[in-house]
Write the C-alpha cells for this entry.
Amino acid sequence: MSPAWRVLDTGVREAAENIALNRTLLDALASGEAPPTLRFLRFRPCALLGFHQSAEQELDLEYCRAQGIAVSRRITGGGAIYCDEAQLGWELYVHRRDFGHADLTAISRRICQAAVAGIRALGVDAAFRPRNDIEVDGRKISGTGGIFEGDALLYQGTLLIEFDIERMLRVLKIPAEKLSDKAIASARDRVASLKDLLGAAPALPEIQARLLRAFEREFGVSGVEGTLSGAERLRLERDLAEMDGEAWVRLIERPTGEQPLHEAWMKKSGGLLRVRLRVDAPSGRLKQVWFTGDFFISPRRTVADLEAALRDSALEGLEGRVAAFFEGREVDMFGLSPTDFAGVVRAALDSQPLAPRTLA
Amino acid sequence: MATVRGCNLPDDLYYNVENNVWARREADGTITVGMTAYACSLAGEIVAYTPKKAGKSIDQNKSVATVESGKWVGPVKAPVTGEIIASNDAVAAKPGTINGDPYNAGWLVRMKPVDWNAEAGVLVTGAAVAAAFEAKMNGEGFGGC
C-alpha cells in the first residue's frame, strides 16, 4: 500500500487564520506530531505580503481599509498578492528527506510540475516557468513559494479559478501606468484564470480532485481526508495570537522612498516601447518591470517572460541578463531589437523617479 | 581550511552540521554567526535577510535570522543560547553578500553566549569538520558547490 497523506480542506477563512495555519501545520510536521499533509484553502478578500516585504511599499493601504480588505504577511517569500474566495490555495507539508536530496530548486520544480499536471487535467495548457510561476501561454495562473523548518517543508500556491484584475491593480502597487482600460488589458496579458481560459470555471471539488490525483501520482501516496488534531488546534491558538494583528503586518517596515518608481520610453521604427519599473535602492535590484507599448513581438508571451526573468534581479549585469534571455529564443520583432529592452530599462533607471502613484 | 565537494569550510570555526551554521569565537567572548558555503549553495542567491533584533535572547537551535532565496524562506539557527548583540546592516542592504563571502562580510548576527562551554560540545571544529560535512552531503545527495 502506498503511504498516506492527510488531506485537509480548511474552507474559506480570514487571511490571518490561514497564515497561522501555515505555521501550525509546518511546526506540527517538523516536531513529528503530524503526517505529511495536502491542504486546500481559500481566503476572504485580502492582500498577502511576502515574508520580507513591507506593507507601505507593496500595498495601497488606504484602499484596502476602505474596501475591508484584510492585510497579512505570509511566512513564505516572494511578492504581494491579492486573494479572495475565487482562488484555491494548495499546500504541501512534506519531509525534505522524502525527496532523496536537499536541492530546494529541484524540490520546488518537482512540486510545481505535479501541480501543472493537475491543472492540465482540467483542460488548460499549463507549464512551469522558473523560478516560481505556473503559467499558461505566458500568463500566470498559479504563483508559488516555500519555507523550510529543519527537515519539514511547506510549499504553497494559489490557483486562479476566477480573478478580479481591476481589484488587484488597485490593491498592489504595481508599476502600471494608471488604472485604465489599457492597464487592465495589459495585466490580462500577464495573468489568467481557469474561467478566462475555459469559458466557465470548473467546480471546486473537481479542481481539488485533479490536484490531489496529480500529487498522489507524482509522490506515490494516497490522500486520506483528515482534520486538525487537538495538538494542532492548541498550536493554532498560539500562532493566531502572534499573527492576527498589526504587529505581524508591521514586522517589517520600510519607507516607500526606498523603492522608487521610474519610467522611460523610446520611439523605434516598430512603435513605442515603454517601461515602468520599481527598484529596491538599498540592494540595487529591480523589483518589478512592466513593458507596454504598441510594438509587434511574437510570441506575445516573450514580454511577460522577460519581466519574470528580470524580477528581483541585480541592476548590475542587466544588459547581459537581457541578452542571455533572448539568446536561443525564436522571437520575431519588427523594428525593435533585444538591446532596446535593456536600453529602455537603463534609460528608466537613469531618469528621475516618478511621484508616488495616485489612482483616480 | 577544509574543502568538501568544492565547499569551503574553514576548520577554525565551530559548526552545527545539521543546521548548516557556523560560529566564530571572538577575543571578547562573543561569537559571530553565519551560514556555511554549503548552505549558501543549497539556497542559491539570497535576496532577503531579516535578523532578530539586538537585545533579544535566543535559545540554542532557535532562529536568529530568516533568509529568502529563489522561492524559499528558511531560518538560520543559533549555534548556542545567547543574546543578539548586532546584526549586519551591509547584508541587509545587499543580501547576496552572504553567498559571496559567507565567513566574513556575509556574517548574520553577533551573539553573547550564555554558557559557551556548556553548549559548544555539540559543535564540530578542527579536523572533524571535513568528515562531518562529507557525511551530510552524502546523505543529502549533494553534487558540489
About this structure: The radius of gyration of chain B is 14 Å. Chain B touches chain A at residues 42-44, 47-50, 66, 68-75, 92-96, 140-142 (CB under 8 Å). Helices of chain B lie at 37-43, 89-93, 97-100, 116-119, 129-139.
